[in-house]
Design a protein that fits this description.
heterodimer; A: extended; B: alpha/beta; five-stranded parallel beta sheet; two-stranded antiparallel ribbon; 8 strands
Chain lengths: 159, 198
């Protein structure tokens, strides 16, 4: 094996960031929140569509686990940009579950359906009323962990 | 923890490349960057599109989703660091990750990104990471198995009055160690990779 080469590179971003003008971090955060709010409608629509498709897959029970994984990452991807921790945690658990099942070459629709129902419940509950759903999300994680016994550990992300 | 609200930064002249196969997530990401004052942003729905952009445009920051069909974010960054156009090869990269599939854990560690930000996150957290990347003075490393920012940390130890200082941390700036060295379990716990709640 050849030796590692270590060298400095020019970071143009550093130069730009330090240029006069711009805005404060506080102002940037406020502006970004305003832009995010404008995107909320379409984004929630996209999450709703992904949940609907997942519900349909659970009825049909014929889709490959890759489809379940892709749809749960779609939910996680969009909800993650809105800092929706509960929905992300539930979607993450479903990703973990689908990833395990596809690795084993298995399909187990009952726990997937429980996850999808849980995600739908979170989705239909106003943010202010969601505290009572924490135990349910933990339950989804327990289910995924239980199904992983003998398959390595499923490490739950911090709440 | 996010940037102090009074910290000033200027992203108006930065060329930012945003990559995500999910159209809506890409739109949302672009809107966050608009809020940050980024006027020059290029949106790509695939790694292949991003490769074409990098061959024709100067880019200062790349923000890339990890899960994408065909070429995922990790493979894209590996390509960039090894075979990317000379001008862009060492551009800062922030990866946005939702779920880390087992098959991708090793490639995520070794892809050569500057930062990996896990979802969910707030715009404030993303802005802080951009600022960190801009202020990142780490050298680049090129070896057979890895190309990317130097992952070795130059550690002069925690400051005076903070527990966990070691004999080797001594320096004129830091002063004399007052606590015993950390034991191996404590060190292992410090280095153990864990998901962070942001």
């Amino acid at each position: 094996m050849s030796d590692a080469e270590i060298f400095k590179v020019r970071n143009r971003l550093a130069n730009h960031v330090s240029e006069p003008g711009g805005m404060t971090a506080g102002m940037a955060g406020t502006r970004a929140a305003r832009e995010l709010a404008a995107q909320q409608g379409k984004s929630y629509e996209a999450i709703g569509e992904a949940l609907e498709t997942l519900e349909w897959l659970c009825q049909d029970k014929a889709a490959p686990m890759d489809s379940v994984y892709d749809l749960s990452t779609t939910v996680l991807d969009i909800a993650g940009l809105f800092d929706d921790k509960q929905l992300c945690r539930a979607a993450y658990s479903l990703c973990e579950l689908a990833d395990k099942l596809r690795t084993r070459g298995a399909a187990d629709w009952a726990p997937i359906k429980i996850h999808v129902n849980g995600m739908r419940l979170i989705w239909n509950t106003a943010e202010a009323d969601r505290e009572g759903l924490n135990a349910m999300v933990e339950g989804l994680w327990s289910l995924t962990e239980h199904l992983s016994i003998g398959d390595g550990e499923a490490e739950a992300p911090a709440a | 923890m996010s940037l102090h609200p009074d910290v000033r930064l200027n992203l108006a002249r930065s060329n930012v490349l945003l990559i995500d196969d999910n159209e809506q997530a890409l739109e949302v990401l672009a809107s966050i960057f608009r809020g940050f004052g980024v006027h020059r942003q290029v949106k790509c729905g695939s790694a292949a599109d991003a490769q074409a952009v990098l061959r024709s445009r100067e880019i200062d920051l790349i923000v890339c989703d990890t899960v994408m069909p065909d070429m995922d974010g990790y493979a894209f960054v590996r390509w960039l660091r090894r075979e990317g156009p000379e001008e862009a090869r060492f551009a800062p990269v922030i990866m946005l990750t939702g779920h880390a599939a087992r098959s991708t854990i090793e490639s995520s560690r070794d892809c050569g990104a500057n930062f990996i930000v896990s979802k969910p996150f707030t715009p404030e957290v993303l802005l802080q990471r951009i600022y960190w990347v801009a202020k990142d003075e780490r050298s680049m490393v090129r070896s057979d198995s890895y190309v990317g920012p130097d992952r070795r940390f130059r550690n002069v130890g925690p400051p005076l009055g903070v527990k966990g200082r070691r004999k080797d941390d001594l320096s004129a700036h830091i002063g004399i160690a007052k606590d015993p060295n950390m034991d191996q379990d404590e060190i292992d716990n410090l280095l153990k990779p864990q998901r962070a709640a942001l």
